Amino acid sequence: MCPALSKDSPALKTTQLLVDLTGDHPVFKLKQPVDLFTFGPNCYPFNGVRWPIECEVINDVIQHIEWDPPKPEEFYQLTGEERMPVPVAEENGLLVYCTDISTKTPYFTCSRIGGSGPLKKAHAGARYKKDPPLDFESRFESGNLHKAVQVSDYEYELTLSTDMYTNKHTQWFYFRVRNMKAGVTYRFTIVNLMKARSLYSLGMRPLLYSERASASGIGWQRIGSDIKYFRNYMTAREEAGDNSTLYSLTWTLQFPYDSDTCYLAHCYPYTYSHLQHYLSRVTSDPLTAAHCRLRVMCHSLGGNPVHMLTITSPASSWVAGKTKKAVVVTARVHPGETNCSWMMEGFLDFLLGDSDDAQLLRDTFVFKVVPMLNPDGVVVGNYRCSLSGKDLNRNYKSVLKNLFPCVWHTRNMVQRLMAERDVVLYCDFHGHSRKNNVFMYGCNDQDASQHLHERIFPLMMSKNAKDKFSFRSCKFRVKKSKEGTGRIVMWRMGIRNSYTLESTFGGSTLGWTVRRGTHFTTRDLKSLGYYFCDTLLDYCDPDPSKTAYCLTELRQEVGKQIGENMRPSEEISISDLESSTSGSNSSDSDGLLVHLINQTGSGQKQGKKHLRTCEERNRQREKTAKTNTGSEVKKKSSKNTEPAPSSKATRIEKKAAARTKRKEKKECPEEPHSTPKLRYHKAAGEAQRVRAECTTKLLYLTALHPPKEPQASNKLVQRALWSPQAAAIYRY
Hints:
Elements: E1 17-20, E2 27-30, E3 50-52, E4 94-98, E5 111-113, E6 135-137, E7 147-152, E8 155-159, E9 174-178, E10 185-193, E11 207-210, H1 211-214, E12 221-222, E13 225-235, E14 245-254, E15 262-265, H2 272-284, H3 286-289, E16 292-299, E17 305-311, H4 318-322, E18 325-331, H5 339-351, H6 356-364, E19 365-370, H7 375-380, H8 405-420, E20 423-432, E21 438-441, H9 456-464, H10 486-493, E22 498-504, E23 507-508, E24 518-519, H11 522-539, H12 545-565, H13 594-600, H14 614-637, H15 648-667, H16 676-704, H17 712-721, H18 724-731
Parallel strand pairs: 8-10, 18-19, 18-20, 20-22
Antiparallel strand pairs: 1-2, 3-5, 4-7, 6-9, 7-8, 9-15, 10-14, 11-12, 11-15, 13-14, 16-17, 17-19, 21-22, 23-24
Helix pairs in contact: 5-11, 6-11, 8-10, 9-11, 16-17, 16-18
């Protein structure tokens, strides 16, 4: 043994090197990074959940069983006679539940395990009319209910909490109810929803969970009748600087048992603690731990760990491991979209399973999986934002590492992964609140050799999940307002197949099977993770026949649509043929933080408001003209106004200017501000554009349907070059 390196030597006191002194010579090894860990079968390594310091949290442990209904749960059929309750003020009802406003401070300061200290009383006293009111509670993980007002004996008006440190985004609700009576019809009305359209208008029902029913193995189930989503003509809080219109959701229900403990939710809850228990179970299983490594990618703004899984089969050699391609899958960047977490769990269940297809996927790819990108928002019950008060899925381009650590580290991880190996696909799982079925958003490829290739994977997915996935609802536009999303940022980094997988909060409207017009269950959502893995195998199959078949089908469909929609001298792109239904809109969360909004009015100059539509611009012109006319009349009638100059030189200058103006108008009657030479160049440019446009269309159609005669193609091109539109412009 080397005398200078004994166990008592001070040279061995290091936190980064490990020295093995068992052999003849010391062996130096680097210590494993702190964030990397493996779990034993009896080890639970996760710490408690961290909350913002101002949040009050009850000590009850909330757990729900998983259950699949024996038959599909149908949509509610609207009758047109649903009641629309008028919102009442708090003074006209009985306040039975109210939590302190979440944003006691205008921005996030610090967090602690369990939130603030002792709980304050959030329930009403003993003042009630007939029966004791319902007992509400939402101060638990992912809970959301700000206030409950009793309007009548069995009718309650509910107000949701906005996302923390914002005054927007009220959609997700999840709360507990006690002290109910069975067989009595209760009505609940949420009065401060902010979206103009909702799946509740298409028959979606809320969810109910009964603890007494769970003893019989029954879990979450769809309930409710007399469901109506409507505009209530209220406005948001004026003191918050927001006067947007609010909407109401009302429904009636009967609780199954007396004095039960029930929960009501917008969608199947999936909390951060649920994910931690799932990851602990997966990594403690020796069968799955062999090809699954769990690490903490970073910590969120609130201090909660953001976990990342690396899933692949152990490589036989270092070179063999480097040749594998990579797949990146993320989820839950929007905390209120709980359905995407159930899809993620189904994806992980399949990928970590013992089937031959799962083994083939692990042998072929290296999977980088981030199952929950926004743990802070999930914990506090937000719908869209993190504790920064911003939408993380609009800030993937941000360099503010400390403000958006989750998406910053995700982008950095993908950049390092792309430097090591080819990333064949990126997909971010989401939920959608306005469209039924499942669909994808992608990015149109600008490379002509890869034309339509970005649509192959969604088309294969629609064939594997025929009763759930709608290819017609897929969109592939790259909008400027979505430049900060993970899908577009990863695409611009070089990942051709970059998607978001959108699952509805409602259900399926496809086909003529028994699943048409029914809600999705947790089993349905998990099955989408299975279908995703199955589609990945089809897409990367060494046999190119499936890919070629889908590409041929896409070209035929696009050619058919272009032929139906093409008009003379009109340019039609592939994106123009897509559905006009827009995706999620969070542009209202792209501005300043809420605590800076009021500061902009004092000491800072407001920016010019950009008018979007032609009608808005016309109204603004009329308003400006009326204002100018009124000011001129006021100046003329004022006694203090100075007399206009009336010198001879001034009158001569005015007459000369008028003659020049009339002369220019005669020479150029159609375009008074352009010369004939400029108009000629405009016409020539328009003609050139029409020629190129027609040539492109006919060349594309000719490629799809080649003519029998070899010279027919050239005749079609010549006909396009001298089309009537181009000839008319040249004659001009």
